[in-house]
Amino acid sequence: MRRVVAVLCLLMSVVAGGAEAEPWQSVDPASAGWSAEKLNAARDEVVGLNATALMVVRDGKVVASWGDVTRKVNVASVRKSLLSALYGIAISEGRIDLTSTLGDLGIDDKPPALTATEKQATVRDLLMARSGVYHKAAHETADIRRKRPVRGSHAPGTFWFYNNWDFNALGTIYRQRTGEDIFVSFAQRIATPIGMEDFSVADGSYVLEKASIHPAYPFTMTARDLARFGQLFLNGGRWGERQVVPASWVKEATTAYSHTDHGSMGYGYLWWTLNPDVFGPGAALASGFGGQEIAVIPAKHMVVVKVVDRTETKGGRTSRFVDWLKQLTAAAP
User: Fold this and answer.
1) Rounded to whole angstroms, how far apart are CA atoms 251 and 240?
2) C-alpha 155: how far from its chain's center?
3) What is the assigned CATH class of domain 13-331?
4) Which run of H or of E encompasses 288?
5) How far apart are CA 183 and CA 220, in angstroms?
6) Alpha carbon separation from 190 to 18, 185, 228, 254 (Å, rounded)
7) Contacting residues for 219 by C-beta, under 8 A, at least 6 apart
8) What is the structure's pLDDT at 1?
9) Is residue 149 classed as helix, strand or coil in its secondary structure?
C-alpha cells in the first residue's frame, strides 16, 4: 500500500509541477568556430550511420541535426544509464546503500536460485557489471547469451561481464528500496526538472521473461530529450539553478572501473567510458543495441545523440558511431 501511495504522489507532482519546456536553440557552426571542411566531411558520413535522428549540441545549443528528433524510439540499453542517474539521487538521499548485498536486500531468482556466494554481490558490484551472478535474464541479446560465463566461475566483484541480470536486478532493487515506479520516478526527478519535451510515464514498460523474476524496463524516447539528459551529465548533474543529480555521482558513474571487450572503452556505473586519449577526460557513452547512443564529451563541451527506429532500419555497431564521433570532434573548436 505504501508503494502505491508513493507512486500516486509522484504522479500528482509530475502533473502539478511540470515546468514548460524551453525548445533547443540553434547556432551557426561557422560562427561558433567549427571547421566547415571537417564538419562537411562528417556530414557526408551520416548516411552510413542509418540514424533515424542525430543531434550535435555544443555549449547547450544545437550545432547540427539530421532526421526527426521528435520520433520516439526504443532506446534499448540506454535505459541503464537513465537508471544510473536515479541511483545517484537515491544513494545521496540514503534510500539505497552501495555496500548492501543481495542477501541483505532479499534478492533471489527462479531456480536455479542464487547461491550464498552470489548473494554476497553488492549494489556497487551490480552497477559495475561485476556481480558474478550469471543467471539467465530478460532482454538478453544473443551475444550476451553466448558469452555468459558459467555459474560460480567468478566471485562477486572480481570480473566484468556486460550482464543483463545485474541491470534488471538493479531495477528491482530501485523499486523495492524507494517504493517508486522507475518511469514515474524518472519523469518526476529528471525529465520534468530538465524540461524534456516529449517523455511521459507511458513511454516506459516492464518486460518479464520466463527465466527470471526481474523485468527489463525499456524506455521509448526522442533524440531531443536524450540530448537534454546528456547535457545534464555534461553539466555535472546541474540544470539551471538546480542540482538534479549529485555532481559527485556524475563523476563516479562516468569513471572507468573496468576494461571491457569493446576495445578502448571502459565501464563505470551503467555508463561506458570513452578513450580519454582521443576524447579527453570524462568522456562517456550511453549505448543501446541497434544504434542508440548518447555521447558526453566534456573536453569539447559537447553532447551527441543518435537514435534508430529498429522497426525500419538497422542502426549499425557502436564502434562505427565512435569512429564517426572522432571525425566530428576533430571539426569542433
Assistant:
1) 19
2) 26
3) alpha beta
4) strand 284-288
5) 11
6) 11, 8, 10, 18
7) 74, 75, 78, 79, 82, 183, 186, 203, 204
8) 38
9) coil
92, three cell numbers: 545521496
d(CA 125, CA 158): 9
Q: What are the counts of helices (DSSP H) followed by strands (DSSP E) for the chain?
A: 12, 14
C-alpha cell read off for 3:
508503494
- How many other CB atoms are found less than 10 A from the CB of residue 66? 17
Q: How confident is the model at residue 9 (pLDDT cuts 50, 70, 90)?
A: very low
∠ CA 299-303-307, nearest 5°, is 145
**Domain coordinates of the chain in residue numbers?**
13-331
- Give the mean pLDDT of the chain: 92
Q: Which residues of 221-257 are buried (b: 16+ CB within 10 A; e: fewer)?
A: bbbbbbbbbbbbbbbbbbbeeeebbbeebbebbbebb
The enclosing H or E element of 44 equals helix 36-45
Q: Is the pTM of this model over 0.90?
A: yes
Cell numbers that stand for 108 in this block: 533471489
Residue 291 has pLDDT above 50, yes or no: yes
pLDDT per residue as tens digits for the range 142-180? 999 999 999 999 999 999 999 999 999 999 999 999 999
Q: Phi, psi at residue 243, to the nearest 5°? A: -85, 95
